[in-house]
Structure formats: structure tokens, C-alpha cells
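TIM barrel protein, Devosia marina. C-alpha cells?
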Amino acid sequence: MTRPLPTIGAALLVDDLETLAPWLIEGQRDVEIQDFISPSRLDGDWRVQVDRARSLLDGHTGRLGIHGPFIGFSIATPDPVIREAVKLRLRQGLDIAVALGATQMVVHSPYTTWSYNNLDKDSGARTRMIEYGHATMGDAVKQAEDHGITLVIENIEDKDPMDRLHLANSFNSDAVAVSIDTGHAHYAHGTTGAPPVDYFVTAAGDRLSHIHMQDADGYADRHWRPGMGTVNWHAVFAALATLPQSPHLVLELADNSQLRAGADWLIAQGLAR
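C-alpha cells:
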């Protein structure tokens, strides 16, 4: 039996729903709302934007997520004072996800190129990173479990695709999984010697719940539409086809006016629908 092609959705702002909601609803595509990254939005009356999103997405029965807060912090901070601020931001993000009816929240990996080269230099450093992650995220994981939300840890500078997988698995919870940003992985491949993007997919395996799809050149975090860069999309989708699950697939572009064109390119390649 032939497996159906995956459906491409979009990561976007509520303003973008004014024009893109009919396309998203018609195809019941994955949606990720990204308005709640901003600290000013988190500290303001975010319920107005949630209500607007819910209204514009009326009739959407597809999968819905948000990009969680990340500006200025690590989810494995060693500083207990900063940790309290991070806990607040994660709690705010999850409160918004609950109000919106979202079942995923993206958070950023704490692993960097520096950590790749240094965590094994100092005895116990790798274990401490996991411990800091639990101290920072533990409350959020419990909140996510209580509301049926999955926190997905997105690669940012990750060179080893297994690092954030080990962090996710250490919680022993269905409320923590991993995300891949294809452009971030391609950047790491091109600049730090990380494996290519499809290796990130294979490494994540059945713990992969979400993908930010963007094209890039292996030099910078471009967020181009697919077809504009050098990501090997056929290899990426071949790797996806081996997985037992269907991760959320959302285009995350620098120019959201290109979202439909990006989806159309993947469809024309016979990779998605």
C-alpha cells in the first residue's frame, strides 16, 4: 500500500491568516502561529490575538501549534535567577497554547557549536546540561502533560543531531519530542561539518514531531522558500517516508508572501501535497 504524500502547512503570523486561512482550511494543513515569540506580546493582552486567530481559523480541524518564547534565554540555563524568568516565559507560552487549542509548542535547543567541542572536555559537563534542562523545563513539561501539549526541541546551532534527542528522551515523557529546522541543519552542515539534513531526520526517528521547512545555502539562516537554496529536498522527504509517524510539516520563511509558492514547488516536485 502506497503511503500518501505528506501535507505541507505553514508557520506564520495571525496577520497572514487574513489571506492564507482559506488555503490552510481547505487542505486542513498544519498551522504554527508565531506571534507569541515577542516579549511584548507575552506581557500584553495576548488573548486578543488568540481570539483573532481562532476566528480566522474557524473550520480548521488540522494540527495546530505555536512557536514558544526563546528570545534571550536557554532552556538549560545554569543561572537560577535567569531560570525563573525562563520558567515564566515557558508558562506564558503554554497558557497561550492552551487558550488557542494548540497541541505543540516549539522551543529552542540549548546545544551550540561551542558545546559540541567542549561538553566532553570537562568531566560531568554533559550531565550537567541535562540537569539544567530539567531544572529549567521541568514545570513546563508537567504543564504540557496536563494539557496534552508536546514541547518540540528545535535544532539551532546543533552539530550533533543526537544531543537534543538525548535531552528530550531524558524526560521520559510523551510531552517532549524533537523538531528539525531544515535550514538550521543545512547551515550546521555547511559551516560546522554537521551531517546533512536527511541525517537529522533519520537520527530523530520516531521522536521527530515537527519540522520547520526552509531552504538555505549552508552559510546562513536564509529561510528561503524550497527550491531557492541547496537543501537536498528529495533526500529529506525520502528520510521522512521511512518514519512510522507524520511530523507537523510547516514552511517557515523570511517572506510569508512566498508560503504558497514554496508549497507549490514541493508539490510540483512530487514530494508533498
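The first strand starts at residue 9 and ends at 12.
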